[in-house]
Write a structure and sequence with these properties.
The complex is a heterodimer. Chain A is mainly β. Chain A has strands at residues 2-6, 16-22, 25-27, 40-46, 52-57, 60-81, 96-111, 116-117, 128-130. In chain B, a hairpin with a 4-residue loop joins strand 4 (70-72) and strand 5 (77-84). The chains are: A mainly beta, B alpha+beta.
Chain lengths: 139, 395
């Protein structure tokens, strides 16, 4: 079978997506785990004119920076085409799949450091970070 | 909250607001209202040089459900490798409004992440996977019986493949596939790609040679129209005759004046014709060298001369006692992937000298691997003395 990779936007107008990346996982407080929709993950802040950022998740603060991807990432969306669209030469009766380019990622804001605890601040509802290499230490 | 949470929009988004965050500003990153519902999204990492190919819709992904998928540009093939991550990469789409100039409605306060990126598909250039092509076409070679039955072909239950069917089944770019069809001497007949039965090709070639002699036409320059005319009246389909000329002959370059007269001249390719007759003789199996040479010279058309060098990559020779034996071992009959090629070679012979081995591996192409590294990977090289020829055996 053959899956076409389709792009309707063209290189210059392909819309850019962003990635905010951190190590480990963000866990919502147990009370919110089933309803994270619209919940705040954290606050991204750019302190100065440099490309340095902080990301505050609950009472944890991460420091990171905006980095250009070595190679761009395309965001592809799977689309099912019905066979009634009459694909010439098609020998199967199943519906065809197409991948559509819906965006491109050229930068990500990357937080490589371990979180720093912000003791003085109140805990927000959003959650906490549990880095993979460290046991969750918060109670 | 910022703009965009009107409810009926798909994503509130805000990639622009994140990427263009001004100094001393901050933005809240939130789970989208439909966070994690987008299992239909994939991330594909690719070189900047491949971007134009994608943007111009010239890329497809090929492979059957049980095969590892490959991505094909018009001229190259790439394996798709999934690379997972243990990081959390929040994917933030652009805001869904038509124009997304950050400054037009004040600073955006919230950007929505629609999912965690699961991992990335990476591309690794690979050799086209062509082994299936020959098998597919060999299932149903074109035979003389078909000359007269152009119309009822669809009903005989045999598989015939159009170009569109081949690209559905073979994991290669269009350019690589076209090259491979040429390499195996396939021809498009009535819209289907076929290889012609070897014995039938032999008959057509002999008939052409016979007619050239009969009419005293030169092997080095005969008129296409005349040959097609005489072969056509003998009942051979012109498509097959032309295919035979393509394989065993070359068009003669004509001056512009001659071309404008509508003339088309062919000459027979000495090497192709001689190799063909050697293969025909060796079809029966191993034979003694003297007898082979006698029969071969006998078959070569007058005006051509055969040279044993022509059979490089076509035959193997072995001395057994006082006698020399020869048998057919054609590079075109061997697998096209390196691991399988070397396995087949070492099954035929345990030890290979370089001059014998080289014709059987020089067509192997693996992106990123030189022929030296191929040898290192698949063979063991021994050299009994400093000035002796190196010998290659299996690892």
């Amino acid at each position: 079978m053959q899956i076409r990779v389709k792009c309707e936007c063209g290189e210059s107008s392909c819309r850019e997506w962003a990635i905010v990346e951190l190590q480990g996982v963000v866990e919502a407080q147990p009370a919110f785990q089933d309803q994270i929709q619209n919940l705040e993950i954290g606050v991204l802040c750019r302190a100065s004119s440099q490309e340095k950022y902080t990301f505050t998740v609950g009472y944890h603060e991460l420091s990171g920076s905006k980095v250009a991807m070595k190679k761009p990432l395309l965001v592809l969306k799977k689309k099912k085409l019905l066979d009634s669209e009459d694909v010439p030469g098609s020998s199967s009766n199943s519906s065809k799949i197409e991948l559509e380019v819906i965006g491109i990622i050229r930068h990500r804001i990357l937080f490589k450091t371990r979180p720093r605890a912000l003791i003085s601040r109140n805990c927000t509802l959003a959650g906490q970070i549990s880095p993979l290499d460290v046991d969750a230490t918060q109670s | 909250m910022g703009r965009g949470d009107g409810g009926d929009e798909m994503w509130r988004g805000g990639a622009e607001a994140v990427l263009n965050l001004q100094p001393s500003a901050s933005i809240s990153i939130a789970y989208d209202a439909v966070f994690d519902a987008h299992s239909d999204l994939l991330l594909l990492e690719l070189d900047d040089k491949l971007l134009p190919q994608i943007m111009q819709n010239r890329v497809t992904i090929r492979g059957e459900p049980d095969e590892e998928a490959v991505l094909c540009t018009p001229s190259a093939t790439y394996a798709l490798k999934y690379v997972g991550t243990s990081n959390s990469a929040f994917l933030i789409p652009p805001s869904s409004g038509p124009s997304s100039d950050v400054s037009d409605s004040g600073p955006v306060k919230v950007a929505s992440a629609i999912k965690l990126a699961p991992g990335v598909m990476e591309l690794v250039e690979v050799a086209p996977r062509l082994h299936k092509l020959k098998e597919l076409l060999a299932e149903n070679p074109y035979r003389p019986e078909e000359d007269s039955m152009e119309e009822l072909e669809e009903n005989d239950g045999l598989r015939r493949l159009r170009w569109e069917d081949l690209v559905e089944r073979v994991q290669a770019s269009d350019e690589e596939l076209k090259g491979a069809l040429k390499d195996i001497s396939a021809v498009e007949i009535n819209g289907y790609w076929r290889i012609v039965d070897e014995k039938y090709m032999d008959m057509v070639l002999n008939m052409i040679l016979h007619n050239l002699v009969l009419n005293e036409w030169s092997l080095d320059g005969f008129e296409e129209d005349q040959v097609l005319g005489i072969m056509g009246s003998d009942g051979f389909p012109l498509k097959i005759v032309l295919h035979c000329l393509e394989i065993y002959g070359r068009r003669v370059n004509l001056t512009d004046d001659e071309l404008s007269g509508g003339r088309c001249l062919w000459r027979l390719d000495e090497k192709q014709v001689c190799v063909h007759f050697a293969r025909v003789i060796l079809r029966g199996g191993k034979m003694k060298m003297e007898r082979f040479m006698d029969e071969w010279m006998d078959k070569i058309p007058a005006g051509m001369s055969a040279d044993f060098e022509m059979l490089e990559g076509q035959v193997l020779v072995e001395n057994i006692g006082m006698e020399t034996w020869i048998w057919a071992f054609s590079v075109s009959s061997l697998p096209s992937t390196p691991a399988e090629r070397f396995a087949a070679l070492f099954q035929e012979r345990q030890k290979w000298e370089w001059k014998d081995l080289q014709p059987y591996i020089r067509d192997l192409r693996v992106p990123g691997l030189s022929s030296e590294s191929l040898l290192l990977k698949y063979t063991r090289r021994t050299q009994p003395t400093m000035d002796a020829e190196p010998v290659f055996s299996t690892r």
